[in-house]
Write a structure and sequence with these properties.
By secondary structure, the protein is mostly helical. It contains 9 helices and no strands.
Length: 207
């Protein structure tokens, strides 16, 4: 591919990075275990959409603002942490039967909200932006100049392999936990555990 160096190495490295557990993985697993396959898949799509936006920002140079501005980085970091903690607290205190994969239209957590929450969780994580900005350029030929196409190709490749892996994880987690969610007591525990995980992710982002 023009202006891309060691694409196969990038592909293998990307797959290894994708299967390494991180904040996005924990978020997807929490949704899948507590709310089922549909919620897990929607979370995957939301996070992948956030990664696409990060890729575009890197490709067109906008992420340089984040890397060069301590204030911008701090603001995004605390917004992301606050959002995760908010989701965690809301999940813990929610009295609705949130952890049912057959969510009705009147339920508080609708499919589009799960998708948006996944995307916002990814977008508000400055570490993701810095990762794309530091990882992708290593495989870009210096002669590419300001051409955004190589960045977009690498970004889409990384996101595609990551989405496939996360879909597999989501399916496996939801399948294993399906019977557990039908138990009222275990469902209650899963709800509190999911909220606690979100709060923990938010605190981890801050520190």
């Amino acid at each position: 591919m023009n202006y891309i160096d060691n694409y196969i190495v990038f592909l293998i490295s990307g797959i290894i990075l994708n299967i390494t557990p991180g904040a996005d993985t924990m978020y997807i697993l929490s949704r899948s275990i507590s709310q089922g396959q549909r919620a897990g898949f929607l979370s995957v799509l939301g996070i992948s959409s956030g990664s696409i936006i990060h890729t575009c920002l890197v490709a067109f140079g906008l992420s340089l603002i984040l890397s060069e501005s301590v204030i911008a980085f701090t603001i995004i970091k605390y917004l992301g942490a606050g959002y995760l903690i908010y989701l965690g607290i809301r999940t813990i205190i929610n009295k609705e039967k949130a952890f049912d994969e057959n969510i009705s239209d009147s339920a508080e957590i609708k499919p589009y909200k799960i998708y948006l929450q996944g995307m916002m969780t990814n977008l508000f994580n400055p570490k993701v932006a810095l990762f794309f900005m530091s990882f992708l350029p290593q495989f870009i030929n210096p002669n590419a100049g300001n051409n955004p196409v190589p960045f977009l190709i690498l970004g889409v490749t990384f996101i595609t392999t990551g989405t496939i892996w996360c879909m597999v994880l989501s399916f496996g987690a939801s399948y294993i936990s399906k019977k557990l969610r039908n138990n009222a007591k275990i469902s209650f525990i899963l709800q509190k555990l999911c909220g606690t995980v979100f709060i923990g992710l938010g605190i981890n982002l801050v520190i």
